[in-house]
Every structure is written in C-alpha cells, then in structure tokens.
Structure prediction request, 931 residues.
Amino acid sequence: MSTESAAGGDPAPAVELSGITKRFPGVVANSDVDITVRAGTVHALVGENGAGKSTLMKILYGMQRPDDGTIAVAGEPVSFASPADAIRAGIGMVHQHFMLADNLTVLENVVLGSEPRAGVRLDFAAARARVREISDAYGLGVEPDRLVDDLGVGERQRVEILKVLYRGARTLILDEPTAVLVPQEVDELFGNLRDLKAEGLTILFISHKLDEVLAVADDITVMRRGTTVASVSPREVTARKLAELMVGSALPVPELRESTVTDRPVLAASGLTVTSADGRKVLDDVSFTIHAGEVLGIAGVEGNGQAELVEALMGIRVPSAGSVHLAGADITRLSTKRRREAGMGYIPEDRHRQGVLLEASLWENRVLGHQTRKPNARGPLLDRRGAKADTQRIVEQYDVRTPGIDVHAAALSGGNQQKLIVGREMSGNPVVLIAAHPTRGVDVGAQAAIWEHIRRARAERLAVLLISADLDELIGMSDTLAVILRGRLVADHDPSTVTPEQLGSAMTGAGRES
Amino acid sequence: MSGGVTLEQKAVSAKRGKRLSPMVYLLIAVGALAVLSLVRVLSGATDLTSSGTVQAALIAAVPIAMAALAGLWAERAGVINIGLEGMMVLGTFGAGYAGYQWGPWAGVAFGLVLGVVGGLLHAVATVTFGVDHIISGVAINLLAPGAALFLSKLYFADAPGGGQKQSPRIADAEKITIPGASDLLGTVEAKRWFFVSDLAGVLRGLTTEVSLLTVLAVALLVLTAWVLWRTPFGLRLRSCGEAPTAAESLGVNVYRYKYLAVVASGAFAGLGGAFLAVSSGQFRDGQTGGRGFIGLAAMIFGNWRPGGLATGATLFGYTDAMALRGSGAVHALLLLLGIALLVVAVIQYRAGHHVLSGVAAAIGVLFAWWYFTSDEVPPELVGAAPYVVTLLVLGLASQRLRVPRAIGVPYQRGQGV
Prediction:
C-alpha cells in the first residue's frame, strides 16, 4: 500500500521509473526509460504501437522483469517478481484485452483470487456488498450479479477497473482504454477517471489518441523507439506537436483528394436482411449502391450488424431476404469463392481469425482466397513458383517488412500482416474492396500506407466499402457516410461537414443530424 | 447516453437469464411420470415403473453419474478428459483386487486410488507437457484396459473363484431400506392404479435396498456442486476453464488447480469403476462397456452442471434397467420413446428449430409405428436399447450449451497478453 496523501506538502511520486532497460532476443524493447508519476494525477504515456509502452507497463506490473533500472513506489524502491507483488504494492492494471471470464458473473470475476470467506465457503453476501460499495463510491454503476458475457464493452471496462480497486490499488494502469469505446463511452470513462483522481488515486493512462490524452491528462510522457523522448504538460502542447514527438516527423492524415466518383454502380445491396439463429433481425432491410471510384463509409457501434453485412456481401452468411448485385449481375446466390473470382476483395476485421494463417508462410497466405486463380494455380494444382514470385511482388510493392516470404505470418507485426492482406486483396484485378477496420491495431506508418492503398484503389475506380471504428478515418476517407444502428442504415452524412461527435450520437441512436 | 446499446443487451440477458424454478421442475417430473403411467396402462408393461426397475436404474445410473462428475471436474478446469473410460477400467480392477480380499469398501478405496493414478498421468501429459488432451485421453483408454487385463491374469488367474479375465467375488456394500415405507408402498404399487401405483413404485424403488454406494454417489454429487459453485476453491478452479490468463493475472496458480481438477477427475472415474465392479459382484474384463463415454455425453447433455448430468445419467440408467428387464419392457419403451420424441419435437418447434423438430417428429412417429405394428423387439436390439435411447435424446434435445470457454486449450504460464 502506498502511504502518500493527496493533500499536504509535496508527496513522494506515486511511481518513479528510472533507467529501465529491457532487451528481448534481437530487440531492445525499452532503453533507459525515465518516468515520474505524481500522486493523485492522471499521467498519460503516449507513443506509437511498438514504441515500448506495453513492455514498460508489464515491467511496472510485475509481468516482466527489467534488465536494468529501478522502480520506486511512493518513494520506496521495489522489485516485482509477479503481478501479485505489484498488486500488494497498490498497483493495478486494466488490460487492453480484457482479462475477464465471460461465463462468470461480474461478482465472481471481481473477487477471483482474493475472495472473502466464511469458513471454507465463499462469502457471497460480503462480496456483493463490497462490490456495490466500491461501485457506488466511484460511480461505476456495476451490477454484481450479471454475467460478463451480457455486458457491453464500456461496462466490461468498468468491471476491470472495479477489479483493480477491489484489490486496493492506489495506482491504476490503463492500457489503451479508449481503443474499444465510442466517443460517448470515452466521455463516461473520463468522468470515472476524474472521480478516481478526486479520491486521491493515481492513473497511468496509455494511449496513442492524442486529443483524448490532452483532454484528460495532467502530465504527458512521450515514448519513441523504446525510450522516453519528452515529458510535457498538456497546457503547453497541441495534438499536432505531440504527434510529431511521437512519430519523430510529420504525420499522415486520412483525407481524399479530388472526387473520383462515377455514376457507374458496382456493388449494390437492396433490402438485405439477415436473421440470427434465435430469430432476431441482425441486419434489417439494408440498401445501398457503391459506384466505381466511390468509398462508402459505414459508422456504427460494434455489434450493430457490420459483421453480418460484410458476411452477407461476401457470401459467408445467407441473407434471409434481399439481393446483392455486382456490376449489374445478381450474385446473391453465388458462393464466396465465386464472388471473390468475380472481383471482390475483402480485408476482414479480425486479421488473426479471418485474414491470415499465423502458422503458415507468407506465400501460402498469399494463395488463400486466390487458390483457383493465376498466378497461384495451374489447372487443379498449386503453382508454388508463381505464388512465391507474386508474394515477392506484394512484399515489395506494399512494403511488407519481412525477412522473407517463407517465414510464418506470426513473425510479422500487425501492420505488416495487414499490408500483406491488402496486397493480396488488391491482386487479381478486383472491382470491389470491402475493408473492415483496415487500420485497427497497426502503427502510424502502416496506417498511412493502408490509407494510401485505399486511395489508390479508389483512383483505380474500385468500389470501396469502408467499415471502421475510427471516426476520423471514416470521415476523412469516405465519399459517402452511412450510420448503422441495430442492423439498419439509419442516417446518411456528408463527410465534408459532419463532426465525430455528430456521428457518435447517430451511432448510439441518441440523435439525428444537428 | 448509449440507450440503444444497453437496450439490446437487456433483451439478450433476459433471454439468457431464464432459469426454471423448482416448481416447474416438479411439474415436469409429475408430467413425465404421468406419461410413463399412461404408457404402462396402454402397454401393460408393469416394469416401466416397478420398484425393481427403479432399483436397477439407480444401480446402473451411479457409475455413469460418477463418470460424468469426473468429466465435470476436469472440463470445468479446462481439461478435456476423454480418458474417463480408461480411468474407470483402472477403478474396476482396483475394486476387484482389493475388494475380494478386504471387502467392498477397501475395493472402493483402491479403485479410487488407481483412478487417481490415471488422472495424474493425464494431468502430467496435458498440463505439464501440453500434450493434446484428446491424444492423451485416447492413450489412457488404450493403456488402461491392457494394463487391467495383464494385472488380472497376474493376480486373479490363481485366486479362488477368479479367472484370467475376472476377479473372485466381491461382497456387496451394505444396503439400507426404510422399513415401514417399503411395505406400505409395495401394497399400493401392487394395486396397479393409474399414477398412484406408479408413484408408489418409484418411491419404493428409492427407499428399498438402496446401496450405501448409491447414497455416497448422491452425496458426492451434492458436494461437487457445493465445492465448485460455493467456495473460493471452486471459483478458482472454474476460472481456469474459462479464462486461465485472467486467473493467472489475479494470482491464481493455474497449473495447481488444473492438476487438482484432473486428479479429482481421475478419482471420480475410479470411483465410478469401483462402484460398477462392487455392485456387479466382481471385476470383469471389458466391464465398463463405454460407460465413461456415456458419462461424458451425460455431462454435455447436462450443460456442464451437476443437476443436468445427474438427469442424463438417470436417463441412461433407466433405459439400461429396462433392457435388463427383457424384450417386453423394451417394446413398451418404443412407445415411450415415440412420445418423448414428439414432445421434444414440439419444444424444438416452438424454439424455432424447425429442422430439428422435424427430425425428432419423424423418428418419434417411426418408433410409435414400430410399437403398434410389432409385438416384441428382436433380442439382438435389446442390449443396444440404452445406447440408442441415450443417443437419440442427447442428440435431439440439443440446447444452448455453454461450454467452458478455454476448454482443450493448452495453457502456458506467461503466454497471456
């Protein structure tokens, strides 16, 4: 437990990291990192993916040991062998990928590992009371007896925060907490963070979303290539300046150049309806037309039918009503393979589950989805040489950073895997590109490259369907914008005038068009 | 705020949160008994609800229930235990070996110990060495019968009353009867009244000559439910099957809990085998006859919950008992199964599973037709009846199963995040 008090004098810093260095075989994840976190503040740690933020936080949370350097909590030097030690010192972590068991209740998730007991029994009554008490004290609004499976992302995050508070943490590490939230949920989270701060808790906030950092942080530390490059106050910097500190150079913006939209319809859906196994309409009477050279952006809170829409378009899911036309031809009944052969490219939302085989080589991944076509196939057989040559071409043209085309896809960073997927989907003369969250979880460099490829696809008169949770990306990269809510397309927006806030409220159904 | 989102989630949770009250369960039980009674009156097969059948059903259900409990322990901790069958075989041998020399309870204890050995083997392979759970389980299933047969030849061939493939007789465990109730119920049962006599038959079966082993099995079932759902230990064990990395991040020693769970699983499977051997009076080669797998199926049917798996085990026990009663009883079972499948068809239809409903209805009608156009079931099929019935019911009553999330996934410390 830390002993500092928020009031009175100049308390020792809640956490002080100095000279932290961590090497992994072949890479230095952190070198000589210094951070001082004042007690009772929100301290933001910003940096690109791969800048070493996560490694640093794992070190602070006892999941990894530093090769060099010292950690001090509330002025006392400490050494953590495991997260349990960190928890004992009052440090708690809310992971980016929630550490929750879906089939257990909120209560069970919270108390797991430090359960109140009555004899050998778990004292559910005491646990419930304690969870309620904490939830009320910090305004988290968490219901102890609900199943985590039934909770939305924002609620799950609050459960994670509650879990950490339950263990008596005075310093909370939040790893990219806003990555999965819509703007309104972000505001709620920030409200919670301010409440926590008011109670004297210290928060370490990891992010690469700079406007959010500027909105909530008291201090900011910037990391680049494994080391801390600057410590700034949010009053002294702009988002642009921060971004340049982060990247080390000017940064890319999602934007389209002159309009390339033609009046030739390429992909058209009419009355598309998908019914789930339990009879609910997960996609309800969706109609749209994308013309050659047009990017249609679809905004929406996740789980409102985006995945089903994409699957219905690709022929993975059978719609219960409606039709899909590709360049005038009805493709509603075609198989996924035939659709792909007809020129539909698809960047799936979850690249590890649908985009690549992690345990297969790059050239094998290149063949996937194009296994019937040149240059990958010759008659019924695979053309290994052709596939390899073409993979080499993709690696060069799309700047996939890899030691070779025979390494497993798992060896590549997320951004490079994504570039490989984009390269694959742009091969074989597609006429349509469906991009679901194409830049999710990739670094700024790869993001800029992927945007550039989408722009090029548009310039080559492809019809592009763009689904994203990044509202700036949607607004910047779309010619037309639609909002999907509970399976229906509810509103059209002009990307040149709409603001992220307007989109955000349309996404939650709170309001239409200002 | 995010009104639309929460609204949708509420709808989902309402659907999920639907749990039947005890009253509804009672009604279902009464309804089932009424149907049984009706079939008995129609077919004249008194065995359907006789106390003898119920007794036999209990004896047959106990090993299945133990196997299912064994599966529950392992799978709740995330380890698939298809090696149950093999561990049961070890249990039957253990019971035979210790049972004929030192009495049934020594047999039960030794069967349990051998089951633990099997469990440990599975734990070492799957938890420590990360071997695929199915492969390790199959290996145990191949290994155990061979080992049991070898040991049987070694120890039983020259023992008095033993043989190459069987142990000498084991004394049966003590049996208890509730004195007054048994006679009174017996009189009512003999009256052949609709429903009342059937109820009396069932109750008499449950109060007469009940083996202490059965009582122990029921106690273990309740104890398991309590330990797994009411204690910190149980919560931690289940968390290892749901989200081991989350458990690890909260300081739960996942390896330890997995080990304990799989060893407990072996112990229960060994017990199941021992019960089987003791209640049938000796160890015999091939005695388990796939009961480990049936237990696994009963556990899945029971949705990884003690109450559910007990229902599945009872179902198998009941049909097994009917098969033992001979072809007349199995013939009546045809009608019963026909009716049951039609009920399943209606339920599935209302749930919107039209195809499943159609299949159930078609098979149901087929069985009813078979019943009305024949006088008996060929004796060759009688022995298969329990398996066929179990398969049909387990298959067609498919429900929204909630599998432990991390089941079968090899876990390694520090691999998370």
